[in-house]
Amino acid sequence: MGRDLSKAQMIVLVIACFGIFLSGFMLFKTAREYKLAEDEYAALDKFTTKVDSTALAPMSLGPVAIEEEVTEELARNYNRADFPDIDVDFDGLAEINDQVVAWLVMESVDISYPVVQNPEEGENEYYLHHTFENESNSSGCVFMDWESKPDLSGWNTFIYGHNMKNGTMFGSLKRLLREDGLYESDP
Prior knowledge:
This protein has helices spanning 2-44, 68-77, 90-96, 175-178, 182-185, and strands at 48-50, 86-88, 100-106, 111-116, 143-144, 159-160. The chain is of the alpha+beta class.
């Protein structure tokens, strides 16, 4: 009977070792994917340039607004100070991924990412598991819902991104709840 117990212990030990190895491998794989995605998005920052807001012309909404009345309302309620002072090289970004539609910035929580949109009907899954450079990666990419208008002229625009455990992408939004005054500093 002692020998049967020894075999049972051996089986449990082998299973435990396999579980530890598998867990370690998965942790390593996840950390590696996080790092690759972080490096990719850091490299994309070269397509943005900080600009001096005092040198900018007054904001013009152009043909984006749906109706003239809406244009007047937007012009009254928004001014250049409401928007980040960056210039984005969308032509350069489009050479990497022609589905780029915007750049999302919220400086107070370190959000600065290109936004893509897959125009295929019902297709929101692709960018959950692919980066901006179309590399397979569980970190994914910040993307706009396929039904949203890419020129942001719709009444609602849905933008998705992962709540990353390492604080990147939308993982840093939790800071808005935890840090007093952070939201007020960058609404």
